[in-house]
Design a protein that fits this description.
The protein folds into 2 domains: about 5-60, Structural Genomics Hypothetical 15.5 Kd Protein In mrcA-pckA Intergenic Region, Chain A; about 65-240, Pseudouridine synthase, CATH 3.30.2350. The chain contains 7 helices and 17 strands. It has helices at about 5-10, 20-25, 90-95, 120-125, 145-155, 185-195, 225-230; strands spanning about 5, 30, 35, 45, 50-55, 55-60, 65-70, 100, 110-115, 135-140, 155-160, 160-165, 165-170, 175-180, 200-205, 210, 220-225. Strands 7, 8, 9, 10, 13, 14, 15, 16 and 17 form a 9-stranded mixed β-sheet that branches. Strands 3-2-5-6 form a 4-stranded antiparallel β-sheet, with no helix packed on it.
Length: about 240
């Protein structure tokens, strides 16, 4: 792995800001491979170097995986000059990790979005051949019927584009759960429009085998557990298996 400045490496681990790391270096509080670090511009391999800060060993985590409960009105982007983005919602220590949203939710859609700096996992998760299923809660402007369920199960063709079969479960009148394995532009909204219904509320509840943490308030985020990271790429699916 490429060598990096030690102040960049350690600040990315939420130990302190880069200025805070520099202060620790000046006080002789940081060791790298048993040697006192004297300058913040010294470079090391973050994955093979043994770091000790204030007498405590530090294990460098190369990748970060964050579950964010995205609110409405926020862009699924890393930065934007005119609107708030999902990255803007994070505390400063996470913003230093070069995170990006793995996939997107429309500005008016809320729920589970994954933020990471792991490009390889994001690519696998978003690749159509991976068949990573996503579950959504959908509210429409009319009562849904078993005919709608049947049409979704057969696949929808609209506007010259084909959408693969999707599972729908009517929860109550105009409310349904829908599971898809694609991520085409405005897909859920376009599928409902094709059956004569307009989506008035949309929330993502699950990606792969990982369900949105119900304890996360809108706009809050947390790290994924190790088992959740593995389950992101799970091909298991089915609405009934989720609850």
């Amino acid at each position: 792995m490429a060598l990096e400045r030690i102040d960049k490496i350690l600040s990315s681990q939420n130990i302190a800001s880069r200025s805070g790391i520099k202060a620790l270096i000046r006080s002789g509080s940081i060791l790298a491979n048993g040697q006192i670090v004297k300058r913040p511009e010294e470079k090391y391999d973050p994955m093979t170097t043994q770091f000790i800060v204030n007498g405590q060993p530090v294990t460098v985590q190369q990748f970060v995986y964050i579950m964010l409960n995205k609110p409405q009105g926020v862009l699924s982007a890393s930065n934007d000059k005119h609107a708030k983005t999902v990255i803007d919602l994070l505390p400063e220590e996470w913003k230093r990790r070069d995170l990006f949203p793995a996939g997107r939710l429309d500005k008016d859609t809320e729920g589970f979005i994954l933020l990471t700096n792991d490009g390889e996992l994001a690519h696998k998760m978003l690749a159509p051949k991976s068949h990573v299923y996503k579950l959504y809660e959908v509210h429409c402007d009319r009562t849904l019927t078993e005919e709608d369920v049947r049409r979704f199960a057969e696949g929808i063709q609209t506007g010259g584009q084909n959408f693969l079969p999707a599972e729908m479960k009517i929860v109550d009148g105009n409310k349904a759960l829908v599971e898809i394995c694609e991520g085409k532009f405005h897909q859920i909204k376009r599928m409902f429009y094709a059956v004569g219904a307009e989506v008035v509320y949309l929330k993502r509840l699950r990606i792969g085998g990982v369900r949105l943490d119900e304890t996360l308030a809108s706009g809050q985020a947390r790290n994924l557990t190790e088992s959740e990271i593995v389950n992101l790429l799970s091909r298991n699916h089915g609405i009934e298996a989720t609850f």
